[in-house]
Amino acid sequence: MSPAPKPTLERNPSSLERVPLCWGHRGASAAFPENTLASFEAAIRDGAEGIESDVHISADGEILVFHDPRVDRTTDGTGRIATQNYHGGLDQLRTVQAPHQKIPLLRETLDLLMQPANEHVLLNIDVKVDNDPERLFTIMKDIISSYPDFETKLAPRLLLGLWHPKYVEPAQRLLPDVRRAHIGMSPALARKYFWDACCTFSMSFASMVNSEGASFRDECRKAGKEITVWTVNDRREMIEATKWGVKAILTDRTKALLELRHEMEQDWDKVAKETSSLFSWTSFWYLGIANYLISSWEAYLLTKVGGAFYPVPPSPTLKPVAAPPPVPAVVAKVGA
Fold first, then answer.
1. Which residues contact 234 (CB under 8 A, 6 or more apart)?
2. What is the Cα 229 distance to its own chain's centre?
3. CA-CA distance, 309 to 192, in Å (whole number)?
4. 29-63, pLDDT tens digit by residue?
5. Cα–Cα distances in Å, from 255 out to 76, 200, 226, 262?
6. What is the CB neighbour count within 10 angstroms for residue 117?
7. How many CB atoms lie under 10 A from the CB of residue 312?
8. Which ranges of the sequence are coiled-coil (predicted)?
9. At the N or C end, where does the chain have fewer CB atoms within 10 A?
10. DSSP code, position 167
């Protein structure tokens, strides 16, 4: 499979200056089993500049790249990850979807990123709320620091995605070289609990469509904060997110997004006309009331599993975090 053409803006200039980065949501998960090395490799082959994954800890202290707390949905096994050993147990499982794959470890995923051909690829690590922050970040610190020159060659390419404020202080203390992002659906919660501690806000696409989302996007732009949106598989949503100027789009359909980016490069003005100022009215899920209901339910689940939200006091001794290495970036001019 040949990779999608990369944006160059050399042949047919348009009003497009740059496009959002393409981050494979659980890899190229529309075509391969999610959160597997095969899926990550496919996303990179397609041309994605980043991949997104999730982590859980096994009973024997291994960090697995897996979305659910249980293995039932996507593998031939059953039960919770936290109560089972990886070695001699979870490592024997295979995905239900072909090509049948093992559950990868975080270390194996980082090995993939450290290959010379992949040293430009970013990794967005979604920290699930049932993880113990001290245990998770201590193990993660040991893994990351085991790589030569990790402070310059690996840590700047990692982004910790935090749903719950209980992870902020341990992340600052144990992983000071790794950037932090808030993952969420509510601009209000993002402002209240994560604004000072996070450089990036990874928000559900629908939460950024309505007026509250537009205001939040404007605040982030003025404050120098980056926005990424998930999970965007629809062409029109990809175009709209590009108009917003988001840093990255998380998608299951990496090849489709990269092909659309090529179209944008060739004739952005034509592509931009596929969405209009009426876009926010094209789906019930884009309305403010819909996002309020969904984000309220999500907040309930987060507090049920992770405990009550609480403000995190700013740390006066934070170590400056290195910026990621430059990659071919992409955003439309404001007002496009």
1. none
2. 8
3. 10
4. 999 999 999 999 999 999 999 999 999 999 999 99
5. 28, 24, 23, 11
6. 8
7. 16
8. none
9. N
10. G
